[in-house]
Design goal:
The complex is a heterodimer of chains A (326) and B (360). Chain A has 326 residues and is mainly α. Chain A is built from 15 helices and no strands. With 360 residues, chain B is an all-alpha fold. Chain B has one domain: MetI-like (MetI-like fold, Orthogonal Bundle), CATH 1.10.3720. In chain B, helix 7 runs antiparallel to helix 10, helix 8 runs antiparallel to helix 9 and helix 11 crosses helix 12. The radius of gyration of chain B is 25 Å and the shape is globular. The chains are: A mainly alpha (326), B mainly alpha (360). Chains A and B meet through helix 1, helix 6, helix 7, helix 8 and helix 9 of A and helix 7, helix 8, helix 12, helix 14 and helix 15 of B.
């Protein structure tokens, strides 16, 4: 119980820190966002409206910083993330709502593939240590050391320009009706293939290595030797005895990595012009769109927090030892 | 650190590697010293790293051309005049990469050193203080750990006008120390309860002496591995930041080359010489750092080392390789420190790892 309370306290503290950082980002920055908005509309905004714009964006100069801070909290707790500058009348939450599913769908599926595949390969390599299987490790390490956006560029050059098998940019063919119809789904899968391949290739090495190292460690435990000595089938010992115990850190690692689903591939989306969160963030940075930047940063932080909570819960479920300590 | 999180469990030191058992001969000591260097992986990594460091230092002097000097050879492929071709303004890509090496290495070094110092400061202090101080420092590290690094760095750096390499390195360091601090704290906590620390305390050594001469030497491997991971991360992050164009474009770095290549449609024009080498350089540097980390991991966790014979050797001797079972054949020239295997086995029996301590 004490453990639970401490965790809740920690999450509340982190949430507070994230919101506070978020609040200060546009205020510490040079340049006036409202002024840049006025410049964008070049005289179409009357001078009377300028003050109301400041108020709208929560940058009222007549208010103290403290009041602005409280106001910001009030907005956040009401789920109001402000109004986007670049897509002017659209609320930030609307922008995030349209781009989030793209990111979660693509990166989520890619992460699951990487974890499952990586863990399986890791089990096999760990079990067959000292054989040729060890040479897989350096190869995968190479792929994980490559900047993944560069891998993406290479794939575009090869499979979208030289041999146009896959489309090189976008999330789906424009003009298709979005929804559960066959053409749209096929188009989404085609567009998502190269980005997903990039993510899987660049992230799988970590999963392989983690699983392999745990396998090696667990495999020298006595119960594995006993299982061998009993003459149990190799496969049963490998999966039922060794892998089963070695997978624990992988599972909690997976839960943690879910938090990076939203933020982990910002640049990939830029390279592939994929209509997800990362693309929106870079557009926001390019257009000095502070509310959108803040909103996206908040969503990313929240997803990491949720993933952490998930990892905690999963760990307590899987490992009885943590329950006793608590 | 998305690259390769250091698993605290894997890092949990086996007591025998860090606490030098009493009564080891000078020969054994000398052998132990070179375990890390003898490791083929870490040796390869170190050699590559040294080459890159030298290039970083002398790169701008040996570059055949001024990286900013345009020529009339627009966008031509590799030739004897331009080893890696030219870009859309006729600038020499090879020179750009050579000059850019310094920036990349500088960011890696500064970020690595500053982040490691912060990690040691926070981690060891938290581990030694205990109580409310520990709670506060740990909470701070955990918050920094949870707040997503890359988006934060991109937002911060994009707001700084013309952020140079040093600024970026510092931003990377101040957002990237937390993982190292967490691992170091866990290990410090476990060390603090060991007998030799208790003995030092009982013999009246000051806390400073215990921290500097008893604890830190036993944390060397973890500190080194956290340094290497931070450098890896910093190199990738620097490349990413200059690729997306939020860093100053006047300093050359590998990411800057990629930025110009991407913004000038190098891909669609088939100018592979423009963007392939830069990415390969990052990959090779990253791989050398990862290899060094492998070496450290194996040094720290003997279970990851290949014990006894390799599977091929076992098969030659007619032994079926199995996991969890180490074959030892007497007449094989293994590295026994003692004259006879019998003695070695006794030594092994006395220094068998204690039941694992729970590292919180």
């Amino acid at each position: 119980m004490k453990f639970l309370l401490r965790r809740i306290g920690f999450y509340a503290l982190t949430f507070w820190a994230a919101v506070t950082i978020n609040f200060f980002i546009p205020r510490l920055m040079k340049g006036d966002p409202v002024q840049s908005l006025i410049n964008r509309y070049q005289g179409q905004i009357s001078t009377d409206a300028v003050h109301s714009l400041y108020v709208l964006f929560g940058l009222d100069k007549n208010q103290s910083l403290w009041d602005q801070y409280w106001q910001y909290w009030g907005q956040i707790l009401h789920g109001d993330l402000g109004t986007s500058f670049t897509l002017f009348p659209t609320p930030v939450s609307e922008v995030i709502k349209t781009s989030l599913p793209w990111t979660i769908g693509l990166v989520g599926i890619a992460t699951i593939i990487a974890v499952v595949l990586g863990s399986l390969v890791g089990v096999l390599i760990g079990w067959r240590r000292g054989t040729w299987a060890d040479s897989i490790l350096p190869v995968t390490t190479f792929f994980s050391s490559v900047p993944y956006f560069w891998l993406g560029l290479l794939f575009i050059a090869l499979f979208a320009v030289t041999w146009p098998i896959f489309p090189g940019s976008g999330g789906a063919t424009p003009g298709l009706e979005q929804g559960w119809n066959w053409d749209f789904i096929v188009s989404v899968v085609q567009h998502g293939f190269l980005p997903a391949l990039t993510i899987v290739l660049s992230s799988i090495a970590g999963w392989i290595l983690g699983m392999r190292n745990m396998m090696v460690t667990v495999a020298s435990e006595d119960y594995v030797t006993v299982a061998q000595a009993k003459g149990l089938p190799e496969r049963l010992v490998m999966f039922g005895y060794a892998a089963r115990n070695a997978i624990l850190p992988q599972v909690s690692g997976f839960a943690l990595s879910l938090g990076f689903v939203v933020s982990g591939s910002l640049v990939m989306e830029l390279v592939f012009s994929y209509p997800g969160i990362g693309y929106a963030l870079f557009n926001a940075i390019g257009g000095h769109d502070y509310p959108l930047m803040q909103g996206i940063f908040l969503v990313i932080t929240l997803s990491v927090l949720v993933a952490n909570i998930l990892a905690d819960v999963v760990y307590v479920f899987l490992d009885p030892r943590t329950r006793q300590e608590a | 650190m998305s690259n390769m999180p250091l698993d605290p469990a894997a890092v949990a030191l086996d007591p025998e590697t860090q606490v030098d058992p009493v009564g080891t001969g000078a020969a054994k000591k000398a052998r132990k010293k070179f375990v890390f260097v003898r490791n083929g992986k870490s040796m390869t990594g170190l050699v590559i790293l040294v080459i890159f460091t030298i290039l970083g230092i002398i790169g701008p002097w040996i570059a055949p051309q001024d990286p900013n000097a345009s020529s009339l050879d627009l966008l031509v492929g590799p030739s004897s005049a331009h080893w890696l071709g030219t870009d859309q303004l006729g600038r020499d890509v090879f020179s750009q990469l050579l000059v850019g090496t310094r920036g990349v290495m500088l960011v890696g070094l500064i970020a690595g050193v500053v982040a490691t110092l912060l990690a040691v400061l926070f981690g060891v202090t938290a581990g030694f203080l205990g109580g409310i101080g520990d709670e506060t420092l740990s909470a701070l590290a955990n918050i920094v750990l949870v707040i997503p690094q890359i988006p934060l760095i991109i937002i911060i750096v994009s707001q700084l006008e013309n952020a140079g390499n040093v600024v970026v390195a510092l931003v990377l360091a101040f957002t990237g120390w937390a993982w190292g601090a967490r691992v170091l704290r866990a290990q410090t906590l476990s060390l603090r309860g060991r007998d030799f620390i208790e003995a030092a305390r009982a013999s009246g050594e000051s806390t400073w002496r215990i921290v500097w001469f008893e604890t830190l030497p036993n944390l060397t491997a973890i500190i080194a591995s956290s340094f290497v991971s931070t450098v890896t991360f910093a190199v990738l992050a620097q490349t990413t930041l200059s690729f997306v164009g939020v860093m100053s474009l006047t300093d050359w770095s590998w990411g800057t080359v990629l930025y110009w290549a991407q913004s000038n449609q190098a891909l669609n024009q088939g100018a592979w010489w423009w963007f392939v080498p830069a990415g390969l350089l990052v990959a090779i540097l990253g791989m050398s750092l990862t290899l060094i980390n492998f070496g450290i991991d194996e040094f720290v966790n003997p279970r990851l080392r290949l014990a006894g014979m390799s599977a091929g050797q076992m098969r030659k001797h007619g032994i079926r390789p199995r996991i969890g079972f180490t074959a030892k054949v007497r007449d094989l020239p293994r590295t026994y420190a003692h004259p006879t295997p019998v003695l070695a086995q006794q030594a092994a029996a006395t220094s068998t790892p204690e039941p694992k301590e729970a590292v919180r």
